[in-house]
Automatic annotation (TrEMBL):
<dbReference type="GO" id="GO:0030170">
    <property type="term" value="F:pyridoxal phosphate binding"/>
</dbReference>
<dbReference type="GO" id="GO:0006534">
    <property type="term" value="P:cysteine metabolic process"/>
</dbReference>
<dbReference type="InterPro" id="IPR015421">
    <property type="entry name" value="PyrdxlP-dep_Trfase_major"/>
</dbReference>
<comment type="similarity">
    <text>Belongs to the class-V pyridoxal-phosphate-dependent aminotransferase family. Csd subfamily.</text>
</comment>
<keyword id="KW-0808">Transferase</keyword>
<keyword id="KW-0663">Pyridoxal phosphate</keyword>
<dbReference type="GO" id="GO:0031071">
    <property type="term" value="F:cysteine desulfurase activity"/>
</dbReference>
<comment type="function">
    <text>Catalyzes the removal of elemental sulfur and selenium atoms from L-cysteine, L-cystine, L-selenocysteine, and L-selenocystine to produce L-alanine.</text>
</comment>
<dbReference type="InterPro" id="IPR015422">
    <property type="entry name" value="PyrdxlP-dep_Trfase_small"/>
</dbReference>
<keyword id="KW-0032">Aminotransferase</keyword>
<protein>
    <recommendedName>
        <fullName>Cysteine desulfurase</fullName>
        <ecNumber>2.8.1.7</ecNumber>
    </recommendedName>
</protein>
<dbReference type="InterPro" id="IPR000192">
    <property type="entry name" value="Aminotrans_V_dom"/>
</dbReference>
<dbReference type="Pfam" id="PF00266">
    <property type="entry name" value="Aminotran_5"/>
</dbReference>
<dbReference type="GO" id="GO:0008483">
    <property type="term" value="F:transaminase activity"/>
</dbReference>
<dbReference type="InterPro" id="IPR010970">
    <property type="entry name" value="Cys_dSase_SufS"/>
</dbReference>
<dbReference type="InterPro" id="IPR015424">
    <property type="entry name" value="PyrdxlP-dep_Trfase"/>
</dbReference>
<feature type="domain" description="Aminotransferase class V">
    <location>
        <begin position="24"/>
        <end position="393"/>
    </location>
</feature>
Length: 408
């Protein structure tokens, strides 16, 4: 089992007081904090190797390019892709999912169907809405049972009309872990592609895209302890060859004529312009950091936190939890509400105690409408959180409950 108190020392931002209380950061589903090794990698690049990639033959350019492409290979190894050609750098998970949806425009026709779930982040709904409106395809939703994906409902709705299935690996509200490998088998048996929003799974569990057999897997650097503004799109090589570039300009071209142009091969045909070089190098440092700790250890640690805190939260009178009842069916995301108290008020009260959580619709309004709530409070855990953090959260909720009950 990893030592979270020791790991916490790698994150300088956590060593501070908020409202005169030691910070407990529980908004990791929104973004994670950055370890010192990532900050040092960014500084080192800017101080010693700052140059554009794939352009110059001078020493700095060669060093920057070497680090950039080594980072791509490291990411490919981390998710167990067959080749670094299958790893595309984008601006974020949202961009990655939009690019896959644009590919779907090449495939979909009127009468086809795209299957998503009601738990999806808006980034995995709106692009599909737009594509379906343009192509005449139909957007179909699978719903929930006992706080997680209803596989019977999904199986019934996955038919020969389904051309794309696009699902979160882990819900950013419910915390449930969807059975991607099983869904991949169902999708492929019906001739559909499977797209996975992996933003909430990549920092919390070991990912093997070959084992999952998904066709696309999208995630972001900033949710796995890396820099902001950088996303990754994994795609099976044969599908990426079929995809047309989304953006056009320098560096993605092979040759430009006056009236036409040809493209480079994979992965560079998708990376027009100057990329987020520092971000890619910082991501490599984050990946190495996670590899050194071990993703099995990370997952076991977070599972321990969830198993520890769920009974304590359930014991609070008037508190409603959302998501699977059993901790083994959850990742480290816990959404809840407290009777008589608006989520924003509760989140503010928690902040007074130095505890950072999220309150709102979490970019998942269809899900919250389905749950018949307008907002929830969300606590989300990471490798640097501890059981003491869990106790601080529970105590602060009880304190807020007592205070507001006395003022109502």
């Amino acid at each position: 089992m990893l030592d979270a108190n020791h790991i916490k020392q790698d994150f300088n931002i956590l060593d501070q007081l908020v409202n005169d209380e030691p910070l407990v950061y529980l908004d990791n589903a929104a973004t994670t904090q950055k370890p010192t090794v990532v900050l040092e990698a960014l500084r080192s690049y800017y101080e010693t190797d700052n140059a554009n990639v794939h352009r110059g033959v001078h020493t700095l350019a060669e060093r920057a390019t070497s680090q950039y492409e080594a980072s791509r290979q490291l990411v490919a190894d981390f998710i167990k892709a067959k080749s670094s050609k299958e790893v595309i750098f984008t601006r974020g998970t949202t961009t990655s999912l939009n690019w896959v949806a644009r590919f779907a425009e090449q495939v979909l026709t009127a009468g086809d169907e795209v299957l998503v779930s009601v738990m999806e982040h808006h980034a995995n709904i709106i692009p599909w809405q737009q594509v379906c409106q343009k192509t005449g395809a139909k957007l179909v939703y699978a719903y929930l049972k006992h706080g997680q994906l209803d596989m019977t409902d999904l199986t019934q709705k996955l038919t020969s009309k389904t051309k794309f299935v696009s699902l979160a690996h882990v819900s950013n509200v419910l915390g449930c872990v969807n059975p991607i490998k099983e869904i991949a088998e169902l999708a492929h048996a019906n001739g559909a592609y499977l797209v996975v929003d992996g933003a909430q799974s990549i920092p919390h569990m070991s990912i093997d895209v070959g084992e999952l057999d998904c066709d696309f897997f999208a995630f972001s650097a900033h949710k796995m302890y890396g820099p902001t503004g950088l996303g990754i799109l994994y795609g099976k090589e044969e599908l990426l060859h079929q995809m047309e570039p989304i953006e056009f300009g320098g560096e993605m071209i092979d040759f430009v004529y006056e009236q036409s142009a040809t493209w480079k091969g994979l992965p560079w045909k998708f990376e027009a312009g100057t990329p987020h070089i520092a971000g890619v190098i910082g991501l490599a440092a984050a990946v190495s950091y996670l590899q050194d700790i071990g993703m099995i250890e990370v997952q076991a640690h977070e599972a321990d936190l969830v198993s520890y805190i769920l009974p304590k939260l359930r014991a609070i009178e008037g508190l409603t939890l959302y998501g699977p009842e059993q901790p083994e069916n959850r990742a480290g995301v816990i959404a809840f509400n407290l009777d008589g108290l608006h989520p924003h008020d509760l989140a503010t009260a928690l902040d007074y105690e130095g505890i950072a959580v999220r309150a709102g619709h979490h970019c998942a309004q269809p899900l919250l409408s389905y749950l018949n709530v307008s907002a929830t409070v969300r606590a989300s855990f990471s490798l640097y959180n501890t059981r003491e953090d869990c106790d601080r959260l529970v105590d602060a909720i009880l304190k807020a409950k007592e205070f507001f009950n006395g003022t109502l």
